Amino acid sequence: MSRERPAQRPGSPTDTTDAAATLAALESACARTDLSAQTRALLERARDALDQARAARNYAQQRYRALFDAVPDPVSIIAWDGTVLDLNKAGMAAYRRPREEIVGQPIEVLNPDLPVGHMGPVRDALRRGDSYVIEVTNMRADGTRFPVEVHSANFEHEGQPCLVAVARDLSGRAEAESRYRELTEMVDKGVIVRGADGRILYANAAATGLLDAEVGATLEDVLRSGDWLVVDEDGRVLREPEMPSFQALSSGRTASGQIIGFYNKRQRRLTWLSVTSVPQYAAGADKPHKVLSVFNDITELKRDSAMFERAQALAHVGGWEWDAGHDQLYLTAESKRILGRDPAPDTITGLLDGLVDNDRQRFRHALDRAIATSCGIELELRGVRGDGRPFWIRATGEADAGSPLSARLVGTLQDITDRKQAEDSLRVQARTDPLTGLLNRDAVRTEIETRLADPGQSRLAVLYIDLDRFKIVNDVLGHAAGDRLLASAARRIRRAVGGEGVIARFGGDEFLVVCATADDPSRAPRLADAILEAFGDSFRLDGEEFAITASIGIAQSPDDGHRSQQLIQSADVAMYDSKRRGRNGWQVFTAELAAQQAERLQLETQLRRAVSNNELHLVYQPQVDLASGRLIAAEALVRWTNPALGDMQPSHFINHAESTGDIVGIGDWVLTRACRQLREWRRQGLPIERVAVNVSYRQFIGEDLAAHVRAALKESGLPGSALELEFTERVLIEDEPDTLRTFAILRELGVVLTIDDFGEGYSALNYLRRLPIHGLKLSQLFVQGVPDNTSDVAVCQAVTGIARSLGLGLVAEGIETVAQRDYLIGLGVSVGQGYLFSAGLTPGEMQQRYL
Fold first, then answer.
1. pLDDT mean over 295-304
2. Would you call 98 helix, strand, or coil by DSSP?
3. Which residue numbers delimit the GGDEF domain (predicted)?
4. What is the CB neighbour count within 10 angstroms for residue 575?
């Protein structure tokens, strides 16, 4: 086959040479002197015109090249015989070849897989005025292939027909199709794709699995085998045009949520499927060329009505339908059981009659609104069954919009009685002290705030009650006996107060009574006397009698406070004043006590900012080997210097921090700072084994102490054995399970655990033996009296014996004389601290003394 002469590319060398020769000839003719003036003028105009034409042509060529190279897809200009005439920059990048390697070459250099005569169909389509689209595989310079979709159209250059071909890279689409195929294979829903002729083009694994297609058999073969019947929900056999996928193909609309059954005649098995078929359209088409069907097995849901009703009963969910036009109500068996009416209501009025008044009105309004606006219903309603038992239901419904005479509501009734009762129980538990059955701390605060906010109840009194000598019971009989005493005390306070006030256990052995005073200003003192009288008789516990009295403080609004916290604090101040005056009495909050409270509030306000204002610092009291004086450890002691209050004694501000809860933040600061200091001492070579830090009871119960310890050790890079935590004896008897859990975690971290000031407080040995502690600290209260005070000597001997018998370490504190030290060494106490060795030292002083 002979090749046609290829058309010249725009801007080719031949075009440029011819124009230049013509212009040179014109310039030579104009220069001749033998030409007439008229002829010369004509030649000059011709030359100017040619100059302009050449400039215009150069501009057109530049514009063509800019536009040609701006196209982001590969573009080729191809002669009718298949020769490549030009290629843009995107083409050079895609094929990874320079233009000179492609231009002038046959198109097969880019598409080596094209069949012989491939240009014929292209030319035929373009001569008819159509474009030509084909998917082919192009080849890069390195031999790699990539799929493209080529769009070809007519193009004319200098009167010669050629074509322009734009190639769109399909690699991304192929990857997307691959990912789509992978996803459909992974889902548990059946997926089938049919072509426009109804034949199955693709079926995923779930589809073949649902219909039991054998390995190697196509789903088309399975469905046409004669083993299957397709039926609707009524059991009627469906013809092929009635199936969802063929409906979607013929109508061009989605066939959604249709239920069909596939009956295997050979196995006599019926599989119910929920099918949605979606038609697929090609670009620009007005008819679908494919249909995608997604289905899942709902056989279990369709098993039989008895099982469905059983499922409703198990879930405590029933159904209802109301024909509003005729006021006809249909209830499922489970709905009838939930409502508990015999006969069951068959009108909406009958259903409403079983609800309490407020909820009856709410449901009636919701029904009317649903009918009028087609909105949904979702309410929690209370009612009473026929036998008088209360119930709670969650009612949902949706309206079928239509005329008022044909409107229908369909919904569910769920029995939520158990949940509501559990919620009520939890609310009661959240407000109740589990030991005494009284209100708890948070509940009574809320009660006071609620009354203060109500002008009709805002005049009230708070009685703060603290049991005198309650700790004796815990010391002698233990925690369980103390609990019984608190429960008994609560009953006595209840009898004394009667219905004249609200009673709460505020914490430990402290109680609050809140009473109104507007109608009876003398009520608070009268109730205080009644309470004291109720404690006049001794308490009998485990065969022993204990004379437990009470100290009471009284504060009244609005004079003594406008908020619950202020009132409680005022009553607390009055209670402490009563206890100071001799116990077993009551005291009203006074101006003098107000001044003391103001001082306390100032102290608390400044203390709350002490950590953030960097007003705290630590000193460290050495713990030494009593025999040699060698430094072993150091106890971190917090000090506070405030610009307004000056240097504050720890005995003064620590108690306030305990009562307000600020001790938690202070304790965390001390823990972190002490660990950092020990790391610094070790870096400097100071011979110190560990640092001891006091842990407040509020720290222990108010936060995740173990988490804070773990964080401090991690931040400082210290092992757990480098830290000793000192707890008060109160930890021994409070909330034993949590105590054991926290102590176990701390012990796993390697932290040394010690009970501080052992012997001063509860000294509950039955708890001591169960806690995983390492040691005891012998209180300075007893060390001060040795070796001359017989009682102190006896206590020191007892504590030393306890520690030795339980295998616990023992540190004596408050050693001030050589005689005390020598006596303790004789008892077998090896480690101690006190002014005999050193007071608290700053970090620098520690370094100077022991480095």
1. 72
2. coil
3. 458-591
4. 24
Q: Is the pLDDT of residue 403 over 60?
A: no
Cα distance between residue 267 and residue 703, in whole Å? 65
Give Cα separations from 720 to 666, 701, 706, 742, 809 (angstroms). 21, 21, 11, 15, 17
Q: Provide the percentage of residues in the chain whose pLDDT is more than 70.
A: 83
**Alpha carbon distance 276, 294 (integer Å):** 5
Would you call 77 helix, strand, or coil by DSSP?
strand
Give me the amino acid identity at 64: Y
Question: CA dist 41 to 28, 33, 258, Å?
Answer: 13, 12, 89
**Average of per-residue pLDDT values in the chain:** 82
Q: What is the DSSP string of 295-352?
A: EEE-TTTTS-HHHHHHHHHHHTEEEEEEETTTTEEEE-HHHHHHHT-SSPP-SHHHHH
Strand 408-415 to strand 390-400: parallel, antiparallel, or no bridges (unpaired)? Answer: antiparallel
Distance CA 584, CA 199 (A): 98
Q: Domains of the chain, with CATH numbers?
A: 13-169 (3.30.450.20), 173-297 (3.30.450.20), 306-422 (3.30.450.20), 432-589 (3.30.70.270), 610-850 (3.20.20.450)
Residue with tokens 């009636």: 364
Give the predicted TM-score (pTM) of the model: 0.42
Q: Which of 320-334, 388-402, 615-629, 650-664 has the highest mean pLDDT?
A: 615-629
- Nearest-10 Cα torsion for 148, 149, 154, 158: -10
Three-state SS at 791: helix
Residue 2 has pLDDT above 50, yes or no: no
Longest dimension (CA), the chain: 154
Determine if residue 200 is left, alpha or beta; phi over 0 gives left, psi from -120 to 50 gives alpha, anything else beta.
Answer: beta
pLDDT at 122: 80
Using the structure block, give the residue that is written with the tokens 């307004």: 644
CB 634 within 8 A of CB 620: yes
Look at residue 302 and tell me whether its pLDDT is greater than 50.
yes
* Omega of the bond leading into 343 within 30 degrees of 0 (cis): yes
